[in-house]
Amino acid sequence: MAPKQKPGRSKQDYCTSPEFLKALKHRLGIENFHLDVAASEENSVGLRWFTEEHDALRPEVSWKDGWAFCNPPFGHIEPWVKKAWEEAQRGAWIAMLLPAGVGANWWRDYVDGKAHVLLLNGRLVFTGETTPYPKDCVLLLYTPYIRGGYEVWNWRKECESELLAQKELSSQSLAKSEPDLLLQISSDLWKLGV
Ligand SMILES: C[S@@+](CC[C@H](N)C(=O)[O-])C[C@H]1O[C@@H](n2cnc3c(N)ncnc32)[C@H](O)[C@@H]1O
């Protein structure tokens, strides 16, 4: 017998942490998401956003505007992955955060073979929560070009490598005087044969 559903509705507005968004933007090589397609005035993470009142799922609403981000309500995922797939066919670029529902029909119909799947290594802690989300999550990339694929992504490492690069850069500029830096640049250029 299937286990009974827990009473009441589960939380539908988990907000993506700035730490994860930073890693994702680094991975995509972008400064900002142009569009957050599942948002409120208070929780948007994009330069532009759609709210429940706009209803991003309406057929006439376009998601095409640079990289769009989507962390939809997890209660009813199928219309979101369907819309993402359709919008990618029309030229949109979408990063969508979801629980790894690999056994669901929506996964079979609109994820497998249709999105590049980053399997998130490192549980997510949503903003305002004190404990990690208890399910594995994925980040789906839908674009007009990418077709299906799977990859494990250690997103925390992505942050670390960026921090290390920043640290290295700032310690270099702290440690070296301007003439030292000029000398190093000209020696590097010389090595490159420029
Ligand atoms: C999980 S929260 C996402 C919060 C934040 N934007 C983020 O990305 O972390 C989902 C948001 O989608 C909004 N939403 C629900 N249905 C929507 C719809 N049809 N169109 C646009 N936004 C919707 C909810 O009001 C809620 O603020």
Question: TL;DR of this structure?
Answer:
With 194 residues, this protein is α/β, with parallel strands linked by helices.
Structural summary, described in words:
This protein is an alpha/beta fold and 194 residues long. It has a single domain, classed as Rossmann fold. The chain is 33% helix and 22% strand. The protein has a 7-stranded mixed beta sheet. Helix 2 (78-89) links the parallel strand 3 and strand 4 (93-99). Helix 1 crosses helix 4. The longest helix has 21 residues, at 155-175. The chain is globular and about 50 Å long. It starts with 17 loop residues before the first helix and ends with a helix. Bound molecules: S-adenosylmethionine. S-adenosylmethionine (SAM) binds next to strand 1 and strand 2.
Structural class: alpha/beta
Overall shape: it is globular
- What distance lies between the first and last C-alpha atoms, to the nearest angstrom? 72 Å
How many structural domains does the protein architecture include? 1
- Please state the CA-atom Rg, rounded to the nearest Å: 20 Å
Range of helix content:
25-40%
For the residues shown, what is the average pLDDT?
86
Number of helices: 5
Task: State the low-pLDDT regions, or none.
Answer: 1-8, 173-194
CATH class: Alpha Beta
The ordered string of helix (H) and strand (E) elements is HEEEHEHEEEHH
CATH architectural designation: 3-Layer(aba) Sandwich
Quick one: biggest sheet?
Answer: 7 strands, mixed
The CATH topology name reads Rossmann fold
* Percent of residues in β-strands: 15-25%
> Can you list the strand order of the major beta sheet?
2-1-3-4-6-5-7
Cofactors and ligands: S-adenosylmethionine
